[in-house]
Amino acid sequence: MKKEVTKAIFPVAGLGTRFLPATKSIPKEIMTLVDRPLVQYAIDEARSAGIKEFIFVTSRGKGALEDYFDHAHQLEYELRKKDMNDQLAILQSTNMESGAIAYVRQHKALGLGHAVWCARRLIANEPFAVILPDDVIAAEKPCLQQMIEIYASVGGNVIATMEVPHNKTASYGILEGFDYSSPVFEVKSMIEKPQSAQAISNYAIIGRYILQPKILENLDRMKTGANNEIQLTDAISEEIGHDKSGVYGFQFEGKSFDCGSKIGFLKATVAFGLSHNELRDSLLSYLCDVVGASK
Ligand code: UTP
């Protein structure tokens, strides 16, 4: 019987250099996509997948992110007084149960693997999810929920993946599968940020994982990899081929946006704006005007 996945790690301790100067004073996870911060999308996805414990790996300067999860009692009171019930419902939908969120500190940005390792004591001996809030995924069924369903049948370590252009592999962790014909495939090898000439495939790792606690033991050894950082990809890669703890790539249904990059954030803004009931028509007409004027 597989243990249920009820804990998720949200590593948010990166430097966010691609978004300077914005990230000089605000964490990128607090930046707003249409009407809510990136971190709210991540939390909503995790909640819909049955996650009960939310572990944030933070760093210096991420105070706004912690504050975001405080209940806004005064604002709720004002909205109630003014009968602004729709707004009150939106606000209250972001309230988290007391004690559901934990914060651990990563004192130095030593890499994603190191950030995940920082949460080891809160994970103990259970399978866990990892969500990178700057990878926002638009999907009818939330990506992590799709992954939990797959995990229930294959177990092991499940990694979200999608194909990327061959000349973009250096921006991603890359997976090689034995056979890509089904949405879930066994992984043969993994490599972090290869130049396209060295890339084993064009299947990129997207920021959603379901992992076994063994990965945390592998991270104990603190091996540095690409960019001189402790890489999660390397720790997972050590599990490839083990009988009881396989590694699977999962081609999820949906579209991923790299909101850690400016162009990714802009594309996500357009995509989420166009799927927003109140905004669709006016945004579309504005975009048509802009495109028409640029011809
Ligand atoms: P990124 O590769 O996007 O790095 O990290 P970054 O520092 O956030 O942003 P840039 O590249 O400088 O613009 C992927 C995820 O891993 C987390 C980040 O917060 C992000 O969610 N991370 C990365 C950590 O928590 N700690 C680290 O040491 C590195």
Commentary on this structure:
With 295 residues, the protein is of the alpha/beta class. The chain has helices at residues 38-48, 63-68, 73-81, 85-93, 112-117, 120-123, 143-154, 214-220, 232-237, 262-274, 280-294, and strands spanning 7-11, 32-33, 36-37, 53-58, 101-105, 128-131, 135-138, 157-163, 173-177, 184-192, 203-211, 247-251, 255-258. The strands form 3 sheets. A 5-stranded mixed barrel has the order 8-11-9-10-12. It is globular and about 60 Å long. The termini are far apart. Bound molecules: uridine 5'-triphosphate.
Computed Rg? 20 Å
β-strand percent reads: 15-25%
Measure the end-to-end span: 60 Å
Strand order in the largest sheet: 8-11-9-10-12
Outline the low-pLDDT stretches. Answer: none
Helical proportion, percent range: 25-40%
Q: Secondary-structure element order, as H and E?
A: EEEHEHHHEHHEEHEEEEHHEEHH
Mean pLDDT: 93
Shape: globular
- Name the bound molecules: uridine 5'-triphosphate
Fold blueprint:
Elements: E1 7-11, E2 32-33, E3 36-37, H1 38-48, E4 53-58, H2 63-68, H3 73-81, H4 85-93, E5 101-105, H5 112-117, H6 120-123, E6 128-131, E7 135-138, H7 143-154, E8 157-163, E9 173-177, E10 184-192, E11 203-211, H8 214-220, H9 232-237, E12 247-251, E13 255-258, H10 262-274, H11 280-294
Parallel strand pairs: 1-4, 1-6, 4-5, 8-12
Antiparallel strand pairs: 2-3, 6-11, 7-13, 8-11, 9-10, 9-11, 10-12
Bound molecules: uridine 5'-triphosphate (UTP).
Uridine 5'-triphosphate (UTP) binds next to helix 5.
Please tag this protein with its features.
23% strand; binds uridine 5'-triphosphate; 13 strands; 11 helices; 5-stranded mixed β-barrel; two-stranded antiparallel ribbon; 295 residues; alpha/beta
